[in-house]
Amino acid sequence: MARDKNSFQLDDEARAKIDMEFSEVSQDFEADIGRAADASQMNEDDAARRSSRRPPQRRPERRRLRPERRRVQPVHREVYAKSQYEDRIDEEYEDDLPEEEFIPRRRKKHRLLKFAVRAMIFCGVLLLINIGLLMFSGQLWFNEPKKRDYPIRGPVITEKLGAVEWEKFAQQNIQMAYIRATKSTVYEDERFKKNKLGSAKTDLPTGMLHIFDPMMDGSDQADHFIEVCGDMDGRLRPAVEIKLGILYRVTSPDMDKIAERLEEFCDCIEDEYGCTPVIKCDAVSYENVVDRECFEDCPIWYESEYTKPEENIRWDFWGYSSRVKFSFYENRRFLEMTVFDGDEDKLDELMVGY
Q: What are the respective helix, strand and coil percentages of the chain, to the nearest 5?
């Protein structure tokens, strides 16, 4: 039978159970409220203590240090503390360092590297300076013909050397010499006569040199040379030097005309002394003037200070340097040095009257 809801009543035992359970829930609720209050009080106390402390260093300044570090193997934080960044890390940040950390680049190695680079640059500059001084003094040159290949060599003597002690000068490591005599149609070397007389007292083979003027008549220049030099028996064949300077290259002179004048000079010398002269030239004059059929009987004195003459160039004398010094002459000037392509017997064939 269904009971009426309005007539439902609890007995004493049910009421006692409900009161007991309600009291337990109430006690638990009060305990939770008490713990929440204690926690809130502790948070307030901690906030007060933290507010009384010095604020920690700002993180952005620490983060700016990180890009300067490189990744390395994990090390103990004591190794990190010994680095040069120790002053930049405060006590609070140091306590938070993990076991694996970055190590900054070692500036000591960079200093050593910079020092080594600077030392190498300094040594290189010093070496270049020494090479330049040796080349300027003539002790070191671009090419140096070996003595065993070219045993006969000798200098060109001019008035710039001053007085020459020929008896002592001829005893040095030279086997021949050429003395400058004339230039163009009127010039005569100031010390030619003294050099000619002094060289005649020695056994050193010597010859006379004329500086050719491409713009002047060849016969007139030959007459001037013959008048100044006179008899040349027992001497080396006369030599004539022809060079085309910058002026001649710019003005583009008639090379055929210059070759014709030089041929006239050679013909006059052959008529007077019975032999063709030695033609002294550089690469430009050889290519444009001397390398012709009309000069095939003339010995060639080729100047090349940086390399040996090429195989297609015909030469008997090779002027290899203009910065050589000897003793026993007044002015300590540089000499032009030349080697002869042959032995003493071949050199004797170049004597006047041979």
A: 45, 15, 40
Q: What is the model's pTM?
A: 0.64
d(CA 76, CA 71): 14
Say how many residues make up the chain: 354
Do residues 192 and 181 touch, judged by C-beta distance below 8 A?
A: yes
Packing angle of the helix pair 218-229, 255-273 (nearest 10 deg)? 30
Residue 220 burial (CB < 10 Å; 0-12/13-18/19+)? middle
Domains of the chain: 145-348 (3.20.20.80)
* % residues pLDDT > 90 (the chain): 50
Which helix (H) or strand (E) is 317 found in, with range? strand 317-324
Q: What phi and psi, each to the nearest 5 degrees, are found at residue 177? A: -165, 150
Three-state DSSP at 42 gives: helix
Phi, psi of 321 (to 5 degrees): -155, 150
The secondary element (H helix, E strand) that includes residue 213 is: none
Q: Which residue, chain included where needed, has tokens 């002394």?
A: 273
Residue with tokens 């003395």: 179
Name 53's Cβ contacts closer than 8 Å, sequence gap at least 6.
Answer: none
pLDDT tens readout for residues 83-110:
554 555 455 554 554 555 555 555 656 7
